[in-house]
Design brief:
The protein has about 280 residues and is mainly alpha-helical. The chain contains ten helices and four strands.
């Protein structure tokens, strides 16, 4: 994860799209692209409408062949061989030609449909990663506003709903881990740790540093483990000194709420799992 006020000077020997691609490939969490969901759906609708029309034409041709008076053409709907290799005197390959045309359209339609199904599964980018990408594009020493026209609007705020991230890191962390990585580490680095943390190579003046996600996940796991060990002990300790039954019930309710909140914040437990663990 990148923290700091700037971005890495990847591919310093070039600029524009080559430099941007170098940045995204080095830091995959910033490989954020436009999904063009509306255009993809519109394209599917057009392909669907086209195939629907072809299907209707095929049905009309099939009816015409069945009433043509030719025995071979009458058998088209029963025999693939007669349809594709017909030899009748009034043989007409219009129906088979239409079948081949539909086959080609269906192949493209199905491939596009499956591609869109995969595209729609991609997750939205994290806000922190998107902000860093925007800063990189705007900073004079990095992107330097190289994008022009409509290309410069891809990562604008009004298009956030159509953006997708190639990295699925956003689903791999709980609430506490995301807060630790995105908010706390940025504040901690800018406040004091920038004096100790070495900046990225070749970019000393930017104040940018890269922290490994594995290190932050380890820190989050350690904190979660300590908290998991302390919470039951603190609960027992407090209840030991509470003599009033009413106060003890209130303390139990408070600790139950704290336990369920801890599960929701420090783990990726589902709601049903949180309810089950709290009830137990």
């Amino acid at each position: 994860m990148i923290v700091g006020s700037g971005c890495d000077r990847v591919s310093s020997g070039c600029d524009g799209y080559p430099k941007l691609s170098g940045f995204m490939s080095t830091y995959p969490e910033h490989a954020i692209f436009c999904g063009f969901r509306a255009l993809n759906v519109q394209n599917l609708l057009y392909m669907q409408a086209e195939i629907t029309r072809l299907e209707a034409e095929l049905q009309e041709i099939a009816i015409e062949d069945r009433h043509s008076g030719d025995e071979a053409r009458y058998l088209y709907h029963r025999s693939w061989w007669e349809l594709s290799q017909g030899t009748g005197e009034k043989y007409n390959n219009t129906q088979w030609t239409k079948v081949l045309e539909i086959r080609d359209k269906l192949e493209k339609y199905n491939a596009t449909l499956l591609q869109n199904a995969e595209v729609f599964k991609l997750q939205k980018p994290r806000g922190h990663d998107l902000r860093i990408l925007r800063k990189w594009l705007q900073a004079p020493e990095y992107g330097n506003f190289f994008l022009r026209g409509t290309e410069a609007q891809v990562w604008d705020q009004q298009n956030e709903g159509d953006l997708m991230a190639l990295s699925h890191r956003s689903n791999e962390q709980d609430i506490f881990s995301r807060w630790l990585a995105e908010s706390f580490m940025r504040y901690f680095h800018q406040s004091c740790w920038y004096r100790m943390k070495k900046p990225l190579p070749g970019d000393v003046e930017s104040g940018l540093a890269n922290y490994q996600d594995t290190h932050m996940m380890t820190a989050a796991n350690v904190i979660s483990t300590i908290l998991a060990a302390m919470l039951p002990t603190v609960c027992i300790f407090v209840l030991y000194f509470v003599k009033s039954p009413l106060a003890r019930l209130g303390a139990i309710m408070g600790f139950s709420a704290a336990f369920s909140s801890t599960l929701a914040i420090f783990t990726k437990a589902r709601r049903v799992e949180v309810f089950a663990a709290t009830a137990a």
